[in-house]
Design a protein that fits this description.
The protein is mostly helical. Helix 2 packs across helix 3 and helix 9 packs across helix 10. About 30% of the residues are buried.
């Protein structure tokens, strides 16, 4: 399952990913449009997943994600490496999503199809693998699915997921592991049919 999703679990790979995002952000700060396009491609699924998890509305999540990348372009010149570039990006996303919630004064229940669309955003999956993943994810509880998607598909660390969902790390870890166990069982059941 994890290799299917292309999840990078080694700490060295995570560090390289963070350094690469930082390099791209610094280039974006110098008006490098190619660097911006690469940064966008590498982070858009995480931004959309976070916005969706907070807004519970696919259209609003897409709008917020677009606004996030406008803010990135505008604020990249003032970005200073002080930690995780992904945390910086997702803080922008969380703040914009919360502002949208306050302004609208409403929340819409999340459509199952919206959560199922997140794996479709993940690059590198053949259509048949994507469909298998979406079918298996549909068998998870909403919070388990959210945590698995934010970590495995969007690439957030468990600490980042906990911070962004405002849940204790232990809760995120337990729901993630429970969700993976269910996914394995569901996918094994698929192959037995």
């Amino acid at each position: 399952m994890l290799t299917l999703l292309g999840v990078q679990t080694a700490e060295g790979q995570e560090g390289r990913r963070s350094r690469e995002l930082e390099r791209l952000l610094l280039q974006v700060g110098k008006d490098d449009r190619d660097a911006f396009a690469q940064f966008y491609e590498r982070t858009r699924a995480a931004v959309y997943a976070l916005a969706l998890s907070l807004l519970h509305d696919a259209h609003e999540a897409q709008d917020v994600a677009q606004d996030v990348f406008v803010k990135v372009w505008e604020n990249a010149p003032s970005y200073r490496p002080q930690g995780s570039p992904m945390a910086w990006l997702l803080t922008i996303a969380r703040n914009l999503a919360r502002t949208r919630l306050r302004q609208s004064g409403r929340q819409v229940e999340l459509d199952e199809q919206a959560w199922d669309a997140i794996p479709a955003e993940a690059s590198g999956l053949p259509p048949e693998d994507r469909q298998l993943l979406q079918d298996a994810l549909a068998g998870l509880e909403e919070e388990e699915r959210r945590i698995v998607l934010l970590h495995a598909v969007a690439g957030l660390k468990h600490r980042e997921t906990a911070l962004l969902l405002e849940k204790p790390l232990s809760t995120v870890l337990s729901k993630y592991h429970r969700g993976l166990k269910k996914l394995r069982s569901l996918m094994k059941g698929e192959s037995d049919r």
